[in-house]
Amino acid sequence: MLSATAIAARVRSGEFDPQEVTEAAIRRLEARDPQVHAYLDPDLERARRCADAVAETLRRGEDPGRLAGVPVSLKDNMAVEGATLTAGSRILEGYRAPYTSHVAQRLLAEGAVLLGRTNLDEFAMGASTENSAYGPSRNPWDRDRVPGGSSGGSAAAVAAGIVPVALGSETGGSIRQPAALCGVTGFKPTYGAVSRHGLVAFGSSLDVIGPIACHAEDAALVHDVIAGHDPRDATTWTGERPSALTERADLEGLRIGIPEEFLDDAVDARVLERVSAAIAQLEEGGAITRVVPKGSLPSMHLAIPVYYLVACSEASSNLARFDGIRYGPAREEAAELHERYAATRAGLFGPEVRRRILLGTFSLSAGYADAWYKKALQVRRLILDEFRALFADYDLLAGPTSPFGAFKIGERSKDPYAMYLCDLLTAPACLAGLPSVSVPCGLARKGAYKGLPVGLSLTGPAGHDHKVLAAARAYEAVRGAPERSPLQEDEA
Amino acid sequence: MSGSGPTIDKELIERLAGLARLGLAEDERETLRDELESLLGHFQALQEVDTEGVEPLAHVLTATGEPGVDAVDPFEHARDRLVDAAAVHREGFFVVPRVVEGPEREATDDDAAPVDPDPADELD
Protein backbone atom coordinates (compact mmCIF):
# COMPACT_ATOMS: atom_id res chain seq x y z
CA MET A 1 0.00 0.00 0.00
CA LEU A 2 1.26 3.45 -0.91
CA SER A 3 1.78 6.08 1.75
CA ALA A 4 -0.74 8.89 2.21
CA THR A 5 1.93 11.34 1.08
CA ALA A 6 2.47 9.41 -2.19
CA ILE A 7 -1.26 8.99 -2.85
CA ALA A 8 -1.98 12.70 -2.32
CA ALA A 9 0.92 13.73 -4.59
CA ARG A 10 -0.25 11.47 -7.41
CA VAL A 11 -3.90 12.42 -7.10
CA ARG A 12 -2.97 16.10 -7.17
CA SER A 13 -0.75 15.62 -10.21
CA GLY A 14 -3.50 13.77 -12.05
CA GLU A 15 -1.52 10.53 -12.20
CA PHE A 16 -4.07 8.75 -9.97
CA ASP A 17 -7.84 8.85 -10.22
CA PRO A 18 -9.29 9.38 -6.71
CA GLN A 19 -12.24 7.12 -7.48
CA GLU A 20 -9.90 4.26 -8.44
CA VAL A 21 -7.79 4.84 -5.33
CA THR A 22 -10.97 4.63 -3.25
CA GLU A 23 -12.21 1.46 -4.98
CA ALA A 24 -8.83 -0.18 -4.32
CA ALA A 25 -9.10 0.70 -0.61
CA ILE A 26 -12.65 -0.66 -0.55
CA ARG A 27 -11.43 -3.93 -2.10
CA ARG A 28 -8.73 -4.21 0.57
CA LEU A 29 -11.31 -3.52 3.28
CA GLU A 30 -13.69 -6.13 1.91
CA ALA A 31 -10.96 -8.74 1.61
CA ARG A 32 -9.20 -8.14 4.94
CA ASP A 33 -11.68 -6.74 7.42
CA PRO A 34 -13.47 -10.09 7.88
CA GLN A 35 -10.15 -11.34 9.29
CA VAL A 36 -9.52 -8.50 11.75
CA HIS A 37 -12.90 -6.83 12.44
CA ALA A 38 -11.31 -3.39 12.40
CA TYR A 39 -14.52 -1.63 11.29
CA LEU A 40 -17.84 -1.08 13.03
CA ASP A 41 -19.28 0.64 9.98
CA PRO A 42 -17.33 0.54 6.68
CA ASP A 43 -19.72 3.18 5.25
CA LEU A 44 -18.47 2.56 1.69
CA GLU A 45 -21.04 4.86 0.11
CA ARG A 46 -19.71 7.83 2.06
CA ALA A 47 -16.18 7.01 0.84
CA ARG A 48 -17.43 6.93 -2.74
CA ARG A 49 -19.16 10.29 -2.29
CA CYS A 50 -15.92 11.77 -0.90
CA ALA A 51 -13.99 10.42 -3.90
CA ASP A 52 -16.56 11.87 -6.29
CA ALA A 53 -16.15 15.27 -4.64
CA VAL A 54 -12.35 15.10 -5.01
CA ALA A 55 -12.72 14.09 -8.67
CA GLU A 56 -15.09 17.01 -9.23
CA THR A 57 -12.63 19.45 -7.65
CA LEU A 58 -9.90 18.17 -9.98
CA ARG A 59 -12.20 18.50 -13.01
CA ARG A 60 -12.70 22.15 -12.10
CA GLY A 61 -8.93 22.52 -12.18
CA GLU A 62 -8.73 23.18 -8.44
CA ASP A 63 -6.46 21.60 -5.83
CA PRO A 64 -8.36 19.15 -3.57
CA GLY A 65 -5.80 19.65 -0.77
CA ARG A 66 -2.96 18.03 1.09
CA LEU A 67 -4.80 14.72 1.57
CA ALA A 68 -6.27 14.56 -1.93
CA GLY A 69 -7.86 11.15 -2.40
CA VAL A 70 -6.23 9.62 0.70
CA PRO A 71 -8.50 7.07 2.39
CA VAL A 72 -8.64 7.82 6.13
CA SER A 73 -10.61 5.88 8.74
CA LEU A 74 -11.96 7.40 11.97
CA LYS A 75 -12.27 5.77 15.34
CA ASP A 76 -15.96 5.40 16.03
CA ASN A 77 -15.99 8.07 18.73
CA MET A 78 -15.63 10.95 16.25
CA ALA A 79 -18.75 12.45 14.77
CA VAL A 80 -19.53 12.65 11.06
CA GLU A 81 -22.91 14.20 10.32
CA GLY A 82 -25.50 11.58 9.41
CA ALA A 83 -23.15 8.67 10.11
CA THR A 84 -23.47 6.13 12.92
CA LEU A 85 -21.51 6.94 16.07
CA THR A 86 -21.52 4.14 18.65
CA ALA A 87 -18.35 4.74 20.72
CA GLY A 88 -18.36 0.93 20.90
CA SER A 89 -21.40 1.04 23.19
CA ARG A 90 -24.93 -0.37 23.05
CA ILE A 91 -26.15 2.88 24.61
CA LEU A 92 -25.43 4.63 21.26
CA GLU A 93 -26.61 1.81 19.00
CA GLY A 94 -28.35 3.28 15.96
CA TYR A 95 -27.44 6.86 16.91
CA ARG A 96 -26.48 9.14 14.03
CA ALA A 97 -24.30 12.19 14.61
CA PRO A 98 -26.08 15.53 14.11
CA TYR A 99 -22.88 17.36 13.16
CA THR A 100 -19.31 16.72 12.00
CA SER A 101 -16.30 16.73 14.32
CA HIS A 102 -13.56 19.32 13.85
CA VAL A 103 -11.00 16.67 12.84
CA ALA A 104 -13.30 15.21 10.17
CA GLN A 105 -14.00 18.71 8.85
CA ARG A 106 -10.26 19.36 8.60
CA LEU A 107 -9.65 16.05 6.78
CA LEU A 108 -12.49 16.72 4.34
CA ALA A 109 -11.25 20.26 3.70
CA GLU A 110 -7.93 18.76 2.54
CA GLY A 111 -9.51 16.26 0.17
CA ALA A 112 -9.40 13.12 2.33
CA VAL A 113 -11.77 10.22 1.63
CA LEU A 114 -13.47 9.16 4.89
CA LEU A 115 -13.52 5.37 4.79
CA GLY A 116 -15.52 3.92 7.65
CA ARG A 117 -15.42 4.06 11.41
CA THR A 118 -13.26 1.72 13.43
CA ASN A 119 -13.75 -0.47 16.47
CA LEU A 120 -12.78 0.59 19.99
CA ASP A 121 -13.19 -0.38 23.60
CA GLU A 122 -16.53 0.97 24.79
CA PHE A 123 -16.15 4.75 25.32
CA ALA A 124 -12.40 4.25 24.70
CA MET A 125 -12.08 2.46 28.05
CA GLY A 126 -9.67 -0.40 27.61
CA ALA A 127 -6.41 -1.54 26.07
CA SER A 128 -7.49 -4.39 23.80
CA THR A 129 -10.86 -3.63 22.08
CA GLU A 130 -12.26 -6.55 24.09
CA ASN A 131 -14.56 -4.07 25.83
CA SER A 132 -16.29 -3.18 22.56
CA ALA A 133 -19.97 -4.10 22.71
CA TYR A 134 -19.57 -5.26 19.11
CA GLY A 135 -16.81 -7.83 19.63
CA PRO A 136 -13.03 -7.48 19.65
CA SER A 137 -10.80 -6.57 16.73
CA ARG A 138 -7.92 -8.90 15.93
CA ASN A 139 -4.23 -8.21 15.48
CA PRO A 140 -3.16 -8.49 11.80
CA TRP A 141 0.11 -10.11 12.97
CA ASP A 142 -1.69 -12.91 14.84
CA ARG A 143 -5.44 -13.08 14.79
CA ASP A 144 -5.64 -14.86 18.16
CA ARG A 145 -4.20 -11.74 19.73
CA VAL A 146 -5.54 -8.29 20.53
CA PRO A 147 -4.58 -5.25 18.45
CA GLY A 148 -4.32 -3.21 21.66
CA GLY A 149 -6.71 -0.43 22.49
CA SER A 150 -8.69 1.49 22.80
CA SER A 151 -8.00 2.68 19.19
CA GLY A 152 -7.41 -0.97 18.22
CA GLY A 153 -9.64 -0.89 15.15
CA SER A 154 -7.73 2.08 13.71
CA ALA A 155 -4.36 0.40 14.39
CA ALA A 156 -5.55 -2.91 12.90
CA ALA A 157 -6.93 -1.17 9.79
CA VAL A 158 -3.57 0.50 9.18
CA ALA A 159 -1.48 -2.59 10.00
CA ALA A 160 -3.69 -4.71 7.72
CA GLY A 161 -2.89 -2.26 4.92
CA ILE A 162 -6.50 -1.21 4.38
CA VAL A 163 -5.79 2.51 4.83
CA PRO A 164 -2.44 4.31 5.12
CA VAL A 165 -3.68 6.38 8.05
CA ALA A 166 -6.50 6.45 10.59
CA LEU A 167 -7.37 8.66 13.53
CA GLY A 168 -7.34 7.46 17.12
CA SER A 169 -7.99 9.16 20.42
CA GLU A 170 -5.95 8.80 23.57
CA THR A 171 -6.68 9.35 27.24
CA GLY A 172 -4.10 7.04 28.87
CA GLY A 173 -2.35 5.26 25.98
CA SER A 174 -5.09 4.51 23.46
CA ILE A 175 -3.23 5.73 20.36
CA ARG A 176 0.34 4.69 21.13
CA GLN A 177 -0.27 1.28 22.73
CA PRO A 178 -2.32 -0.21 19.83
CA ALA A 179 0.15 1.34 17.36
CA ALA A 180 2.98 -0.45 19.19
CA LEU A 181 1.12 -3.77 19.31
CA CYS A 182 0.27 -3.59 15.58
CA GLY A 183 3.70 -2.42 14.38
CA VAL A 184 2.63 1.02 13.14
CA THR A 185 3.27 4.65 14.15
CA GLY A 186 0.90 6.34 16.60
CA PHE A 187 1.17 9.96 17.71
CA LYS A 188 -0.40 11.51 20.79
CA PRO A 189 -0.20 15.31 20.47
CA THR A 190 0.26 17.79 23.30
CA TYR A 191 -2.96 18.28 25.24
CA GLY A 192 -4.79 21.13 23.50
CA ALA A 193 -3.09 20.75 20.10
CA VAL A 194 -6.13 19.24 18.38
CA SER A 195 -9.77 20.20 18.86
CA ARG A 196 -12.04 17.59 20.46
CA HIS A 197 -15.20 19.19 19.06
CA GLY A 198 -17.27 16.17 18.01
CA LEU A 199 -15.25 13.62 19.98
CA VAL A 200 -17.23 11.55 22.49
CA ALA A 201 -15.77 12.77 25.80
CA PHE A 202 -14.08 10.37 28.24
CA GLY A 203 -11.54 12.18 30.44
CA SER A 204 -11.68 15.82 29.43
CA SER A 205 -8.39 16.91 31.03
CA LEU A 206 -6.60 14.11 29.15
CA ASP A 207 -8.42 13.37 25.85
CA VAL A 208 -6.52 14.09 22.62
CA ILE A 209 -6.90 13.03 18.97
CA GLY A 210 -3.98 11.88 16.83
CA PRO A 211 -2.96 9.87 13.78
CA ILE A 212 -2.06 6.20 13.45
CA ALA A 213 -0.10 5.56 10.24
CA CYS A 214 2.22 3.17 8.46
CA HIS A 215 4.81 5.90 8.06
CA ALA A 216 5.97 8.66 10.42
CA GLU A 217 5.80 11.15 7.54
CA ASP A 218 2.09 10.41 7.09
CA ALA A 219 1.50 10.87 10.81
CA ALA A 220 3.19 14.29 10.57
CA LEU A 221 1.12 15.23 7.52
CA VAL A 222 -2.18 14.31 9.15
CA HIS A 223 -1.24 15.96 12.45
CA ASP A 224 -0.46 19.17 10.56
CA VAL A 225 -3.93 18.99 8.98
CA ILE A 226 -5.96 18.35 12.14
CA ALA A 227 -4.06 20.49 14.68
CA GLY A 228 -4.79 24.12 15.41
CA HIS A 229 -7.10 26.46 17.22
CA ASP A 230 -10.83 25.80 17.16
CA PRO A 231 -13.12 28.19 19.03
CA ARG A 232 -15.43 25.25 19.73
CA ASP A 233 -12.80 23.65 21.99
CA ALA A 234 -11.56 26.26 24.43
CA THR A 235 -8.54 24.12 25.36
CA THR A 236 -6.96 24.44 21.89
CA TRP A 237 -3.98 26.78 21.72
CA THR A 238 -4.06 29.95 19.74
CA GLY A 239 -0.31 30.52 19.37
CA GLU A 240 2.20 29.70 16.68
CA ARG A 241 2.35 26.06 15.65
CA PRO A 242 5.34 24.93 13.60
CA SER A 243 4.74 22.28 10.91
CA ALA A 244 5.60 18.71 11.88
CA LEU A 245 6.22 17.91 8.24
CA THR A 246 8.74 20.60 7.33
CA GLU A 247 10.65 20.46 10.64
CA ARG A 248 14.14 19.13 9.84
CA ALA A 249 14.27 15.38 10.53
CA ASP A 250 17.71 14.94 12.00
CA LEU A 251 18.92 12.99 15.01
CA GLU A 252 22.32 14.73 15.04
CA GLY A 253 23.03 16.15 18.47
CA LEU A 254 19.57 15.34 19.83
CA ARG A 255 19.80 14.75 23.58
CA ILE A 256 17.71 11.68 24.38
CA GLY A 257 17.26 10.54 27.97
CA ILE A 258 16.10 7.04 28.91
CA PRO A 259 14.78 7.30 32.48
CA GLU A 260 15.39 4.03 34.31
CA GLU A 261 11.78 4.22 35.47
CA PHE A 262 10.78 3.42 31.84
CA LEU A 263 12.74 0.15 32.08
CA ASP A 264 10.48 -1.16 34.83
CA ASP A 265 10.69 -4.78 36.00
CA ALA A 266 7.23 -5.27 34.50
CA VAL A 267 8.63 -4.76 30.98
CA ASP A 268 9.10 -8.00 29.03
CA ALA A 269 12.81 -8.82 28.51
CA ARG A 270 12.41 -9.36 24.76
CA VAL A 271 10.56 -6.07 24.36
CA LEU A 272 13.41 -4.38 26.20
CA GLU A 273 15.92 -6.07 23.90
CA ARG A 274 14.30 -4.52 20.80
CA VAL A 275 14.04 -1.11 22.45
CA SER A 276 17.72 -1.22 23.46
CA ALA A 277 18.62 -2.02 19.85
CA ALA A 278 16.49 0.93 18.71
CA ILE A 279 18.25 3.25 21.15
CA ALA A 280 21.58 2.07 19.68
CA GLN A 281 20.21 2.99 16.23
CA LEU A 282 19.27 6.47 17.51
CA GLU A 283 22.86 6.81 18.75
CA GLU A 284 24.21 5.66 15.35
CA GLY A 285 22.01 8.30 13.75
CA GLY A 286 23.80 10.99 15.74
CA ALA A 287 21.67 11.29 18.87
CA ILE A 288 23.30 11.56 22.28
CA THR A 289 21.50 8.96 24.39
CA ARG A 290 21.91 8.49 28.12
CA VAL A 291 20.20 6.27 30.67
CA VAL A 292 19.00 8.54 33.46
CA PRO A 293 19.55 6.79 36.81
CA LYS A 294 16.48 5.91 38.85
CA GLY A 295 15.19 8.89 40.79
CA SER A 296 14.44 11.38 38.01
CA LEU A 297 10.77 10.33 37.88
CA PRO A 298 10.16 9.25 41.49
CA SER A 299 6.37 9.61 41.21
CA MET A 300 6.00 7.69 37.97
CA HIS A 301 5.18 4.42 39.74
CA LEU A 302 1.99 6.16 40.90
CA ALA A 303 0.85 7.03 37.38
CA ILE A 304 -1.61 4.12 37.21
CA PRO A 305 -3.58 5.03 40.35
CA VAL A 306 -3.42 8.75 39.52
CA TYR A 307 -4.54 8.16 35.96
CA TYR A 308 -7.42 5.83 36.83
CA LEU A 309 -8.71 8.10 39.59
CA VAL A 310 -8.55 11.22 37.41
CA ALA A 311 -9.85 9.63 34.19
CA CYS A 312 -12.68 7.73 35.92
CA SER A 313 -13.74 10.78 37.94
CA GLU A 314 -14.01 12.78 34.74
CA ALA A 315 -15.72 9.88 32.95
CA SER A 316 -18.33 9.51 35.69
CA SER A 317 -19.29 13.12 35.02
CA ASN A 318 -19.02 13.00 31.21
CA LEU A 319 -21.08 9.82 30.92
CA ALA A 320 -23.92 11.24 32.99
CA ARG A 321 -25.38 12.56 29.73
CA PHE A 322 -26.25 9.02 28.60
CA ASP A 323 -29.67 8.94 30.16
CA GLY A 324 -31.44 6.73 27.63
CA ILE A 325 -33.76 9.62 26.76
CA ARG A 326 -31.86 11.86 24.38
CA TYR A 327 -29.75 9.24 22.54
CA GLY A 328 -29.72 5.56 21.83
CA PRO A 329 -32.24 2.77 21.74
CA ALA A 330 -35.47 2.75 23.71
CA ARG A 331 -35.44 0.68 26.89
CA GLU A 332 -38.19 -0.94 28.88
CA GLU A 333 -40.58 1.62 30.23
CA ALA A 334 -39.98 2.40 33.88
CA ALA A 335 -42.77 4.41 35.43
CA GLU A 336 -40.42 6.80 37.22
CA LEU A 337 -37.72 8.90 35.54
CA HIS A 338 -34.80 8.02 37.81
CA GLU A 339 -35.70 4.34 37.62
CA ARG A 340 -35.60 4.60 33.86
CA TYR A 341 -32.14 6.22 33.93
CA ALA A 342 -30.86 3.50 36.24
CA ALA A 343 -32.34 0.65 34.20
CA THR A 344 -31.07 2.05 30.90
CA ARG A 345 -27.55 2.76 32.12
CA ALA A 346 -27.16 -0.59 33.87
CA GLY A 347 -28.56 -2.42 30.86
CA LEU A 348 -26.66 -0.68 28.08
CA PHE A 349 -23.25 0.19 29.58
CA GLY A 350 -20.81 -2.73 29.57
CA PRO A 351 -19.04 -4.04 32.70
CA GLU A 352 -15.85 -1.97 32.32
CA VAL A 353 -17.78 1.26 31.81
CA ARG A 354 -19.93 0.53 34.87
CA ARG A 355 -16.80 -0.26 36.88
CA ARG A 356 -15.14 3.01 35.89
CA ILE A 357 -18.24 5.09 36.53
CA LEU A 358 -18.47 3.56 39.98
CA LEU A 359 -14.75 4.12 40.71
CA GLY A 360 -15.06 7.73 39.52
CA THR A 361 -18.20 8.30 41.57
CA PHE A 362 -16.38 6.92 44.61
CA SER A 363 -13.37 9.15 44.01
CA LEU A 364 -15.56 12.27 43.79
CA SER A 365 -18.02 11.42 46.55
CA ALA A 366 -18.33 13.17 49.91
CA GLY A 367 -15.97 11.65 52.45
CA TYR A 368 -13.57 10.21 49.86
CA ALA A 369 -12.80 13.06 47.44
CA ASP A 370 -9.96 14.54 49.53
CA ALA A 371 -8.23 11.23 50.13
CA TRP A 372 -8.50 10.02 46.53
CA TYR A 373 -9.38 12.61 43.88
CA LYS A 374 -7.52 15.53 45.42
CA LYS A 375 -4.57 13.30 46.29
CA ALA A 376 -4.42 12.09 42.69
CA LEU A 377 -4.40 15.68 41.41
CA GLN A 378 -1.55 16.56 43.77
CA VAL A 379 0.55 13.62 42.61
CA ARG A 380 -0.34 14.55 39.03
CA ARG A 381 1.44 17.85 39.65
CA LEU A 382 4.48 16.02 41.03
CA ILE A 383 4.61 13.91 37.84
CA LEU A 384 4.37 17.03 35.64
CA ASP A 385 7.12 18.81 37.61
CA GLU A 386 9.41 15.77 37.37
CA PHE A 387 9.00 15.64 33.58
CA ARG A 388 9.65 19.38 33.29
CA ALA A 389 12.89 19.04 35.25
CA LEU A 390 14.04 16.24 32.92
CA PHE A 391 13.41 18.38 29.84
CA ALA A 392 15.91 20.91 31.13
CA ASP A 393 18.58 18.34 30.23
CA TYR A 394 17.00 16.34 27.41
CA ASP A 395 15.20 17.13 24.15
CA LEU A 396 13.36 13.82 24.17
CA LEU A 397 12.76 10.85 26.45
CA ALA A 398 12.83 7.32 25.04
CA GLY A 399 11.64 3.93 26.25
CA PRO A 400 9.25 1.10 25.42
CA THR A 401 5.67 2.15 24.56
CA SER A 402 4.07 -0.91 26.10
CA PRO A 403 5.48 -3.25 28.76
CA PHE A 404 4.58 -6.19 26.54
CA GLY A 405 3.65 -7.20 23.00
CA ALA A 406 0.22 -8.17 21.68
CA PHE A 407 -1.35 -10.53 24.19
CA LYS A 408 -3.88 -13.27 23.51
CA ILE A 409 -7.56 -12.43 23.37
CA GLY A 410 -8.91 -13.24 26.85
CA GLU A 411 -5.50 -13.22 28.52
CA ARG A 412 -6.00 -10.03 30.53
CA SER A 413 -9.74 -9.45 30.37
CA LYS A 414 -10.60 -11.32 33.59
CA ASP A 415 -8.57 -9.07 35.87
CA PRO A 416 -9.26 -5.31 35.58
CA TYR A 417 -5.94 -4.36 37.16
CA ALA A 418 -3.94 -6.58 34.77
CA MET A 419 -5.55 -4.67 31.89
CA TYR A 420 -4.89 -1.31 33.60
CA LEU A 421 -1.16 -2.15 33.70
CA CYS A 422 -1.11 -1.86 29.88
CA ASP A 423 -1.02 1.92 30.50
CA LEU A 424 2.03 1.73 32.78
CA LEU A 425 4.38 3.51 30.38
CA THR A 426 1.89 5.68 28.45
CA ALA A 427 -0.26 7.17 31.24
CA PRO A 428 2.56 9.40 32.62
CA ALA A 429 2.84 11.48 29.40
CA CYS A 430 -0.98 11.74 29.29
CA LEU A 431 -1.14 13.06 32.85
CA ALA A 432 1.52 15.65 31.97
CA GLY A 433 -0.11 16.46 28.60
CA LEU A 434 3.11 15.77 26.67
CA PRO A 435 3.45 14.93 22.96
CA SER A 436 4.61 11.36 22.45
CA VAL A 437 5.00 9.03 19.51
CA SER A 438 5.29 5.26 19.27
CA VAL A 439 7.33 4.06 16.30
CA PRO A 440 7.75 0.42 15.30
CA CYS A 441 11.26 -0.79 16.18
CA GLY A 442 11.27 -4.39 15.04
CA LEU A 443 9.88 -7.74 16.10
CA ALA A 444 10.55 -9.59 19.35
CA ARG A 445 13.00 -12.38 18.62
CA LYS A 446 12.06 -14.83 21.39
CA GLY A 447 9.68 -15.35 24.27
CA ALA A 448 5.92 -14.89 24.61
CA TYR A 449 5.78 -12.20 21.90
CA LYS A 450 8.15 -13.80 19.39
CA GLY A 451 7.61 -12.43 15.90
CA LEU A 452 5.33 -9.65 17.13
CA PRO A 453 5.98 -5.89 16.83
CA VAL A 454 7.57 -3.75 19.52
CA GLY A 455 7.11 0.02 19.81
CA LEU A 456 9.70 2.62 20.76
CA SER A 457 8.30 5.66 22.53
CA LEU A 458 9.70 9.18 22.05
CA THR A 459 8.28 11.90 24.30
CA GLY A 460 8.95 15.63 24.18
CA PRO A 461 8.11 18.77 26.14
CA ALA A 462 4.63 20.30 25.77
CA GLY A 463 4.25 22.09 22.44
CA HIS A 464 7.15 20.25 20.80
CA ASP A 465 4.88 18.07 18.66
CA HIS A 466 6.84 19.00 15.53
CA LYS A 467 10.12 17.97 17.17
CA VAL A 468 8.73 14.62 18.33
CA LEU A 469 7.36 13.84 14.87
CA ALA A 470 10.58 14.99 13.20
CA ALA A 471 12.52 12.58 15.44
CA ALA A 472 10.10 9.79 14.48
CA ARG A 473 10.71 10.56 10.79
CA ALA A 474 14.46 10.63 11.34
CA TYR A 475 14.38 7.33 13.23
CA GLU A 476 12.39 5.70 10.42
CA ALA A 477 14.94 7.00 7.91
CA VAL A 478 17.77 5.45 9.93
CA ARG A 479 16.20 2.04 10.44
CA GLY A 480 14.27 1.74 7.16
CA ALA A 481 10.61 1.06 6.46
CA PRO A 482 8.79 -0.89 9.17
CA GLU A 483 8.04 -4.59 8.76
CA ARG A 484 4.67 -5.30 7.17
CA SER A 485 2.06 -7.52 8.79
CA PRO A 486 1.25 -10.88 7.17
CA LEU A 487 -2.02 -9.40 5.89
CA GLN A 488 -0.05 -6.77 3.95
CA GLU A 489 2.47 -9.33 2.75
CA ASP A 490 -0.35 -10.90 0.74
CA GLU A 491 -0.47 -7.74 -1.33
CA ALA A 492 0.45 -8.35 -4.95
CA MET B 1 1.97 -4.18 44.57
CA SER B 2 -1.23 -4.37 46.52
CA GLY B 3 -1.63 -2.59 49.82
CA SER B 4 -4.70 -2.84 51.96
CA GLY B 5 -7.11 -0.17 50.88
CA PRO B 6 -10.36 0.99 52.43
CA THR B 7 -13.11 -1.50 53.12
CA ILE B 8 -16.00 -1.05 50.74
CA ASP B 9 -19.29 -2.22 52.17
CA LYS B 10 -22.55 -3.02 50.48
CA GLU B 11 -24.19 0.20 51.65
CA LEU B 12 -21.45 2.30 50.02
CA ILE B 13 -21.86 0.47 46.72
CA GLU B 14 -25.60 1.11 46.89
CA ARG B 15 -25.01 4.80 47.60
CA LEU B 16 -22.53 5.11 44.70
CA ALA B 17 -24.79 3.23 42.30
CA GLY B 18 -27.60 5.59 43.31
CA LEU B 19 -25.45 8.68 42.70
CA ALA B 20 -24.30 7.29 39.32
CA ARG B 21 -27.84 6.19 38.38
CA LEU B 22 -26.76 2.62 37.79
CA GLY B 23 -29.46 0.06 38.54
CA LEU B 24 -27.34 -2.90 39.60
CA ALA B 25 -28.54 -6.41 40.36
CA GLU B 26 -27.54 -7.96 43.69
CA ASP B 27 -24.76 -10.15 42.23
CA GLU B 28 -23.34 -7.24 40.21
CA ARG B 29 -23.15 -5.13 43.33
CA GLU B 30 -21.21 -7.88 45.06
CA THR B 31 -18.79 -8.22 42.10
CA LEU B 32 -18.26 -4.48 41.88
CA ARG B 33 -17.70 -4.28 45.63
CA ASP B 34 -14.92 -6.88 45.36
CA GLU B 35 -13.40 -5.19 42.31
CA LEU B 36 -13.48 -1.68 43.76
CA GLU B 37 -11.90 -2.90 46.99
CA SER B 38 -9.19 -4.74 45.06
CA LEU B 39 -8.43 -1.75 42.81
CA LEU B 40 -8.21 0.65 45.75
CA GLY B 41 -5.84 -1.83 47.38
CA HIS B 42 -3.60 -1.51 44.33
CA PHE B 43 -3.96 2.29 44.51
CA GLN B 44 -3.11 2.44 48.22
CA ALA B 45 0.52 3.50 47.55
CA LEU B 46 -0.90 6.92 46.71
CA GLN B 47 -1.81 7.43 50.35
CA GLU B 48 1.81 7.10 51.42
CA VAL B 49 3.05 10.09 49.38
CA ASP B 50 3.65 13.34 51.22
CA THR B 51 1.70 15.94 49.27
CA GLU B 52 1.62 18.59 51.98
CA GLY B 53 1.45 21.99 50.27
CA VAL B 54 1.23 20.58 46.73
CA GLU B 55 -1.34 22.45 44.66
CA PRO B 56 -3.73 19.98 42.95
CA LEU B 57 -3.33 19.93 39.15
CA ALA B 58 -6.74 19.73 37.49
CA HIS B 59 -5.50 20.42 33.97
CA VAL B 60 -2.21 20.93 32.16
CA LEU B 61 -3.03 23.92 30.01
CA THR B 62 -0.12 26.33 30.10
CA ALA B 63 -1.41 28.89 27.64
CA THR B 64 -4.64 30.69 28.25
CA GLY B 65 -6.72 30.78 25.12
CA GLU B 66 -8.18 33.93 23.73
CA PRO B 67 -11.66 34.62 24.98
CA GLY B 68 -14.28 33.32 22.58
CA VAL B 69 -16.42 35.61 20.51
CA ASP B 70 -19.76 36.01 22.22
CA ALA B 71 -21.93 35.36 19.18
CA VAL B 72 -24.52 32.85 18.09
CA ASP B 73 -23.11 30.04 15.94
CA PRO B 74 -26.14 29.04 13.86
CA PHE B 75 -27.01 25.35 13.96
CA GLU B 76 -29.52 24.62 11.26
CA HIS B 77 -32.63 22.66 12.13
CA ALA B 78 -31.36 22.03 15.65
CA ARG B 79 -34.66 20.69 16.86
CA ASP B 80 -35.00 18.14 14.06
CA ARG B 81 -31.45 16.98 14.22
CA LEU B 82 -31.09 16.76 17.99
CA VAL B 83 -34.53 15.74 19.17
CA ASP B 84 -34.93 13.17 16.40
CA ALA B 85 -32.02 11.25 17.92
CA ALA B 86 -34.23 10.35 20.88
CA ALA B 87 -35.91 6.95 20.80
CA VAL B 88 -39.18 8.56 21.88
CA HIS B 89 -40.06 12.10 20.87
CA ARG B 90 -43.19 13.94 19.94
CA GLU B 91 -43.60 17.24 18.09
CA GLY B 92 -40.08 18.39 18.81
CA PHE B 93 -40.00 17.34 22.48
CA PHE B 94 -38.42 14.46 24.37
CA VAL B 95 -41.01 12.21 25.92
CA VAL B 96 -40.16 11.26 29.51
CA PRO B 97 -42.02 9.69 32.40
CA ARG B 98 -43.87 12.15 34.54
CA VAL B 99 -41.52 13.91 36.99
CA VAL B 100 -43.87 16.28 38.77
CA GLU B 101 -45.81 14.98 41.76
CA GLY B 102 -49.50 15.62 41.66
CA PRO B 103 -52.95 14.14 41.20
CA GLU B 104 -53.30 11.56 38.44
CA ARG B 105 -55.14 12.72 35.36
CA GLU B 106 -55.83 11.46 31.90
CA ALA B 107 -53.39 12.56 29.18
CA THR B 108 -54.97 14.76 26.55
CA ASP B 109 -53.87 15.84 23.11
CA ASP B 110 -52.87 19.18 24.63
CA ASP B 111 -50.07 17.47 26.58
CA ALA B 112 -48.13 16.83 23.40
CA ALA B 113 -48.53 20.29 21.93
CA PRO B 114 -45.64 22.75 22.28
CA VAL B 115 -46.40 25.32 24.93
CA ASP B 116 -44.68 28.06 23.02
CA PRO B 117 -43.31 27.45 19.53
CA ASP B 118 -41.04 30.50 19.56
CA PRO B 119 -37.95 29.05 21.31
CA ALA B 120 -37.81 26.32 18.68
CA ASP B 121 -37.66 28.90 15.92
CA GLU B 122 -34.83 30.67 17.65
CA LEU B 123 -32.85 27.42 17.79
CA ASP B 124 -33.26 26.97 14.06
Structure, explained:
The complex is a heterodimer of chains A (492) and B (124). Chain A is of the alpha/beta class and 492 residues long. Chain A has a domain at 4-248 and 468-489: Amidase signature (AS) domain (Amidase signature (AS) enzymes, Alpha-Beta Complex), CATH 3.90.1300. Chain A contains 16 helices and eleven strands. Chain A has helices at 4-13, 18-36, 44-59, 102-109, 152-159, 176-182, 216-226, 269-284, 303-318, 337-348, 351-364, 370-390, 416-420, 427-432, 465-479, 486-489, and strands spanning 39-41, 71-75, 113-118, 165-170, 185-188, 208-213, 255-259, 288-292, 396-400, 436-443, 453-459. Chain A has an eleven-stranded mixed β-sheet, with helices on both faces. In chain A, helix 5 packs parallel to helix 6, helix 9 crosses helix 11 and helix 9 crosses helix 12 (370-390). The N and C termini of chain A lie close together (10 Å). The mean pLDDT of chain A is 96. Chain B has 124 residues and is mostly helical. Among the domains of chain B are: 10-48, no CATH class; 78-99 and 110-123, no CATH class. Chain B is 31% helix and 3% strand. Chain B contains four helices and two strands, in the order H-H-H-E-E-H. Chain B has helices at residues 10-19, 26-42, 78-83, 118-123; strands spanning 89-90, 93-94. In chain B, strands 1-2 form a two-stranded antiparallel ribbon. The longest helix of chain B has 17 residues, at 26-42. Chain B is flat and about 55 Å long. The termini of chain B are far apart. The relative contact order of chain B is 0.10. The model of chain B is unreliable at 112-124 (pLDDT under 50). The chains are: A alpha/beta (492), B mainly alpha (124).
